[in-house]
# Entry
Amino acid sequence: MTPSKTASFQRIAAATLAVAALGATLSACAPLVVGGAAVTALVAVDRRTSGAQLDDQGIELRASNRIKDEIGDARARFSISSYNRRVLITGEASNEAIKTQITQLVSGVENVREVINELGVTSSPSLKERASDTLITGRVKASLVDAKDLSASAFKVVTERGAVYLMGRVTQREADRATDIARNTQGVARVVRVLEVISEQELANIATQKQ
# Structure
């Protein structure tokens, strides 16, 4: 392996590990702000308010538990991603009725303001397909980090069956730039924007508040 390919692989691996670590942090039951420097740093760079971040953490946990209690694992494989109280559901449902029921269950969770149900009515992907999705997420995150004109921390990346979902609070320029990066990433079949577009002035206000 050449030095350039080695460096590229290391960036992808690091981004993949960061995605996994961040996902584990946000899906845990403990409060997001626990006094640790690393967690405090995550809150500081996030464009959501601390209240929204806590709400998102709670939404993901409560929505997942509600689906498991009402439907179980046999009829659906799902992943819940909440950003600024907008919820993205990915995975598979055994039929359209189950997909609709999941939307209703998540919509009823406290603090949820919008549900985007991207569940496929199909069989679950193979382990190889899931591994490929994880790798694609790492590649997209690494490319966002490499883009000097973007703040990678402003984006949440979810991949399902080669489809990349971009979440976050970003300007139109950032949305277009990140979409272009994702579309040109190896293995990406399509890009779906689940983004909240804000103005440049709103972004400046957020930066001021975080200082």
Summary: Residues 3-27 form the longest helix (25 residues). The first strand starts at residue 76 and ends at 83.
